[in-house]
Structures are given as C-alpha cells and as structure tokens.
Amino acid sequence: MDARLARWICSTFLVGVLFPSQPLMCQTTIKDCLSPVTPGNRDLLLISNERDYRLARDYWQCTNEFHSHEEAHNFGFSWGSLVYGKELKFGSNFTDSQRDTWKKTHCEQDKLRLSESQQNIVYQLKQNPGVIRLAERCLELSSTSLRLDLQQVDDCSFTLALSHHSPNPQNERLRLTAPPSIAGAQCAGLPSTSAAARNQDLTAGAIWNCRRTARNAVVATFNTNYGSASRSLAPLPEKPPPPPGAVYEDRWFDTSSTGQLLSASCSVTAAIDYKKPECWGGQAPPLGLAGLGPACGTCSSPAATKIYDVRYGCSGPGCGWSFHRRPESGYAPDLENLSDNQIRWYRRWTGDPTFETYTLFYREQRRTCVTNCDHDAQYEAWLKAKGATCPPN
C-alpha cells in the first residue's frame, strides 16, 4: 500500500477524531496498531493484546443490551464484527433468543473472571466509548487484509477508501472482479463496467468522493480478487418541507413605527379675503356683507393617508368673534370633507383677528407581516437540519 494513502486511511478512519495530531500506520497487531497513539494515554495503554481486549469485549456484551445492530454500531462496534455471535449488518435487529442464547453460553460466572488489566479495559470502555471504536478498527486491521472505509463529510457527502494490506508485496495485485455496487449514491471516478477498467491495479489504494442520490440507506459493495467488502450509511430522516414564507398585508395605522400619533396641523389667521367664491358655494358674496360672510381654506394630511378626526383650536382675544357659518352651531368647527386626506374649513368672523388651528389626525397604510414573520430564522434552521439539502426520497 502506498505510504501516503496508508497514513491517510489510518489517521482519518482510526484516530482522526480522538487524536488528530497523531499519524497512524497500519500495523498487523492490535498492540502495534494502537502504539503510535498510546504515549501518555492510559485509556489505550490498557489494551495490551488482542486476547485481553476480546475477553473484555465479551464481558461488555454480557453487561449491555443492544436491541438493534445500529445501536451496537453507534456505540463503536464495526459493521461486520461479531456482537452476540451475529455479524453486524445495517438494518438488522437482535432477537431476544439470539441475545439470551449467546449470553447463556458466554456470560456464565466462571467465564467472566477477568484479570486486573482486563477489568481496567472494561472500565475504560464504560468511561469512553471512543476507545472501543478505535480498538475495533485496530482489531479489524489486524485480522483483515481487504478494507473498505467510509467517512462522512456531511449528511449528503462521504468518501470511500479501498485498500489491501499484504505482508508479501509479491502477492497478486488488488483488482475488481465486478463493477462496484453503490446503492443510494454516486461516486466520482469509479471504475466503469468495462473489463479493462475492472482490471485496473488498485494495490496502492484508491479514494472516491461520493454523494447521496436519495435519502434511503447507502450500501457500497466492492468485489475484488481478495474477497468482497461492504459499507453502509443509515437512511436520512424524511426531508422536512421548507418553512412557509412570510405573509404580508397592507394595514392602516394611526401611529408611527415609534408609536407616535400621526397628525398634521394647519394654522389660520382671521385676516383673510372674505370674497373667495368657494366660500360662498361658488357664488360671489353679496355686496356689503363681506364682513359678515364666511372665509374658508383647505388643510391636508400626507398623500395616500386617511383623515379620521379633526380638532379645532383658537387662541387670542378675538376667539369670541369667530363663528360657524350657521349661527345655531355657535363656535363649533365648520368642516367639509373634500377627499380622504383633505378638508375645507369655513369660518365667519365679526370682530378682531384670531389665530386658529386645525389638527388633522390620520392613518397611513403600511405593508406589515402577519404570519411566519420569523421566516428567515426558520429557514436558517431548516438549512441546518439533518440532510435538509440532500436529495429527496
């Protein structure tokens, strides 16, 4: 095997998570496999030989209850390794009878007498499941020459690494005997179905970048002249739909975005020309009555707004000489609605000038979110959900 590839495979798949700074060359025994990462690490120093580890491993199975193969795999046992006497396979379960029969044979009291070193291994397995994951891989290395490793990059992507370890470099070169079978994914650069491609020399090892094509389980199988090897990925959960978009409506508001009442004011002084025809309904005022007739003017709120209330105010000594056009209405404001945002005021003055104001209270229309207003945050969470960006089923 090419040394660079060997370092990548061992450091990535064996200790890349627990000990990323320690390179690991593929060795032939579990002790040799672990030795590069044991300095200063008591967890791994305890596993001195394969026999000790296997006995401790059996004890650990005796004192735990795995119901599915995936439970055992998630704890650290490799696919294909034996748990309760059964080879771990994706999607399989342990029956009560399988588990009980194995425990009856292997977990009798006289068979559970462990040495101090073996008891220490059991203790470490309880404290740090990562140890069992590393030891299982080393055990696999020490007993298997053909390796197919699968390393997830993210929920949608992964790499496959095919390698063969042989103590005799003169042995037959590694080659495929059938096209690779990759269910549920596509891998770039895989050998084609042609005989020439299948006869490609893979002794130095090969790595392929792959991506799911569906959300169901991924099963990769390689048949070679040194046997077959398979790896699996669990299916992704059902893809959730993206969150619904925010819904907006145009609504009327009588306050600003800061909560202030919306208003506009018009100031009027009594020194006004009384002879405006619009103040007399479009007719010229009668001669001699100009001083007694009405004055008028307009007042507006901003465009596209709606006036809903008008308040009249007067200040100064002349307020007592300012009247509604109809005498019976006294000092009340005299108003006419011209449009949603404009009024005309009328006033009849019979004395000194006054200072008067018309304050218009209005509503404005604003586009406002009414539903799913946290859509952006929901969408970000959806993107981060497991497998959200992977292909659908």
Describe the structure.
- The protein has ten helices and 17 strands.
- The protein starts with a helix and ends in a 9-residue tail after the last helix.
- It is elongated, with a radius of gyration of 43 Å.
- The longest helix has 15 residues, at 129-143.
- It has 393 residues and is α+β, with helices and mostly antiparallel strands.
- The protein is 23% helix and 28% strand.
- A hairpin with a 2-residue loop joins strand 15 and strand 16.
- It has a four-stranded antiparallel β-sheet with strand order 3-4-7-6, covered by helices on one side.
- Helix 7 (116-127) crosses helix 8.
Name its key features:
single chain; 393 residues; alpha+beta; four-stranded antiparallel beta sheet; 10 helices; 17 strands
Question: How do the helices and strands line up, and which of them pair or pack?
Answer:
Layout: H1 3-13, H2 30-34, H3 42-45, H4 50-62, H5 69-75, E1 82-83, E2 86-87, H6 96-106, H7 116-127, H8 129-143, E3 146-152, E4 157-164, E5 181-183, E6 185-187, H9 195-198, E7 206-212, E8 218-224, E9 227-233, E10 247-253, E11 263-269, E12 294-300, E13 306-315, E14 322-323, E15 334-339, E16 342-349, E17 355-371, H10 375-384
Antiparallel strand pairs: 1-2, 3-4, 4-7, 5-8, 6-7, 8-9, 10-17, 11-17, 12-16, 13-17, 14-16, 15-16
